[in-house]
Amino acid sequence: MPCLLAAVAFFFPRLVIILLAIFSSYLSAAFNGWVVPLLGFLFLPYTTLAYAWAKNSHGAIDGWYLVVVILAVLMDLGAMGGGADASRRSRR
Q1: Per-residue pLDDT of the chain (92 residues; tens, 9 = 90+)
Q2: DSSP run (H or E) holding 57
Q3: pTM value > 0.90
């Protein structure tokens, strides 16, 4: 089951954030409050999931867990940049 959730999170990270917020305390264990997860849902969904995973698995963001969070940030930035590139190409 966790592998299925990871596969779904890769393609639909916002859906997984919603499901985790509704059906578990996974996000609340990693974040204090609801503002940061909400902002993460809107702007950096992969980073939000990676941070929650690292915080719940290891308790700190260091070592390989930091590498995973940095890769998630790059994936989020790539998803944002890919959309801008596509809209720029459609204007030509």
Answers
A1: 678 878 888 899 999 999 999 999 999 999 999 999 999 999 999 999 999 999 999 998 999 999 999 999 999 998 887 766 666 666 66
A2: helix 45-57
A3: no
